[in-house]
Amino acid sequence: MIKIPRIPIIFTAAFLLVAIIVCLVNYQLAGTSPPKSFALYNFGSIASIAALFGLILYLCVRSTEQAKKEQDRLQVKIESITDTLHDAQSSLDDAVEKKTFEMSVINGSLNREIAERIQAESEGIKLRERLQAILNSAGDGIFGIDSKGIVTFVNQKATELLGWSREELIGHSHHDLVHHTHESGAKFPVQECPIYMAYKDGNVHFEDDDIFWTKNGRSFPVEYTSTPLLDGDNLAGAVVIFKDISQTKKMEKQLELILDSAGEGIFGLDMKGNVTFMNKSASIMLGWSRKDLIGKPHHDIIHHSHADGSQHHKKDCPIHMTCQDGQIHLKSNDVFWTKDKTSFPVDYNSTPIFEGKKITGAVVVFRDPSIFS
């Protein structure tokens, strides 16, 4: 359907109306003017109106066409802008959807990582609690130290023996708290401490006769092992396992009193034939102090020769045989040699020491028959 412009129609109707009015006015004036002059005036009026109408109509049509072109141009521009907006909106929607998806993936990963970390921490706590329970069930005192000698963990037995609580021990120097002084009262330099050496030289250090100090300032005898703690190839500290050997010391003292009360000489040997202990009677008869003989080979010192001075070979020694065959060997009319290089007659029996089924040494009981005859 063709649209008829409304403005030209309105202008045309208006000018026709004006022309009719002018004609009516002219006819009213016709009675007062000569016919020839009226005709010319009437024609001139109508021509002027028609010319003016034509000019205005032309201008209106041209303005309308320009307005239409501008409208079309603007319409095209609007459509272009609309398309651009649609494209931008589509891109924005895609970007929002993509970001939403990425955020959901990230949130999922974070939630999973958080859940895994919580689970790992929970398992770590359970593991630490389990390890602490295992440590607390041990009959020996146990504590760990870092490479600076600071206590990192401790079990319940250690706190009972030392008198310090876990909070008082953890985070503090073990040497300053429990290992600072010798039994004599002299200061114990940390550089000489076997526990310190373990996390410096990387070797296991064992001590069977040392002391630790309690919170109330009392010392007690201990036996301990200091084992280096490794983090890969690096020394990270040490783990110390110790026990109170007060009862052992007491029993050793009682055993020593019992042995010293015996009239016979008694000494013990390890598998190498070295003296491990000796009673008072043995020391008196042999002329050697315990300090002189303990740790030394008995055969080379007191059983090296026969009574005539000839060499007594170790392989023929009944005491040595005891450590080899695990049998009890009795011997009469033999001799032992004293510190002053004199000999005296002895009767003795050599009895093997067993730990389980394994021979670990021998105990020799001897006497001078000339004294007991």
Folded structure, characterized:
The termini are far apart. This protein has a five-stranded antiparallel beta sheet. Strands 7-6-10-9-8 form a five-stranded antiparallel beta sheet. It is rod-shaped, with a radius of gyration of 60 Å. 52% of the residues lie in helices and 23% in strands. The model has no long low-confidence stretch (mean pLDDT 83). α1 (6-29) packs antiparallel against α2 (35-137). With 373 residues, the chain is of the alpha+beta class. The protein has helices at 6-29, 35-137, 156-162, 166-169, 174-178, 194-201, 246-261, 280-286, 290-293, 298-302, 318-325, 369-372, and strands at residues 141-146, 151-154, 205-213, 219-231, 234-244, 265-270, 275-278, 329-337, 343-355, 358-367. The chain is built from twelve helices and ten strands. The protein folds into three domains: 1-137; 139-244, Beta-Lactamase (2-Layer Sandwich); 249-372, PAS domain (Beta-Lactamase), CATH 3.30.450.
Task: Show the helix and strand layout.
Layout: H1 6-29, H2 35-137, E1 141-146, E2 151-154, H3 156-162, H4 166-169, H5 174-178, H6 194-201, E3 205-213, E4 219-231, E5 234-244, H7 246-261, E6 265-270, E7 275-278, H8 280-286, H9 290-293, H10 298-302, H11 318-325, E8 329-337, E9 343-355, E10 358-367, H12 369-372
Antiparallel strand pairs: 1-2, 1-5, 3-4, 4-5, 6-7, 6-10, 8-9, 9-10
Helix pairs in contact: 1-2
> Given the helix and strand composition, which structural class is it?
alpha+beta
Query: Total number of β-strand segments?
Result: 10
Radius of gyration: 60 Å
The outline comes out as: rod-shaped
Pick out the low-confidence regions: none
Calculate the terminal CA-CA distance, rounded to whole Å: 159 Å
Order of helices and strands: HHEEHHHHEEEHEEHHHHEEEH
Sheet with the most strands: spatial strand order? 2-1-5-4-3
Share of helical residues:
40-55%
Task: Please tally the helical runs, counting DSSP H or I stretches of 4 or more residues.
Answer: 12
Describe the biggest sheet? Answer: 5 strands, antiparallel
Beta strand % = 15-25%
**What's the domain count?**
3
How would you state the average pLDDT, rounded?
A: 83
